[in-house]
Design brief:
Length: 154
């Protein structure tokens, strides 16, 4: 199992890569099927996702709601733009913290890598300020907590 790597490019881009032990089909399904998303896309331990809408088709809605069980929480909304089963997902998302963040366009690719999958996620933010604010949240830690949980499901 490898930990994620996060790099910035230019003023507006963030690129996250991570290898998974499961094949591309399984990792893709885990990123699109609500019953799977609710098992792993939780960030730090103790959080749950009681609401998960993932209409995996172009124009389909995305809505994830997280809670820490102690009155804290936030949600994400978005739309799918393009899907190529088992290899590529393009969507737009915005976090509501509680006010919505600017749109983040995300392209996620899933490529065979030996007996596993190499995931490459490229985020496109509207400007350098929005990217800096997003990176300042320490999001990579919650992402890795979630991805490690996904690896354990494999």
């Amino acid at each position: 199992m490898s930990k994620l790597t996060l790099k910035t490019e230019g003023d507006r881009y963030v690129v996250v890569t991570r290898r998974f032990v499961a094949p591309p089909e399984a990792v893709y399904r885990a990123h699109t099927e609500p019953q799977l998303l609710q098992k792993w896309l939780l960030g730090p331990d103790g959080w749950t996702m009681p609401v998960c809408v993932s209409e995996a088709r172009p124009g389909g809605r995305i809505r994830y709601e997280w809670t820490d069980g102690k009155g804290g929480g936030f949600h994400l909304t978005g739309e799918y733009l393009a899907l190529e089963p088992f290899s590529r997902i393009v969507h737009v998302e915005r976090m509501h913290l509680p006010d919505p963040t600017p749109d983040n366009q995300v392209e996620t690719r899933f490529a065979p890598d030996g007996d596993g999958t190499l995931m490459t996620m490229r985020m496109t933010l509207p400007d350098a300020e929005t990217r800096a604010a997003m990176l300042a949240t320490g999001m990579e830690h919650g992402m890795e907590d979630s991805y490690a949980r996904l690896d354990r499901m494999s």
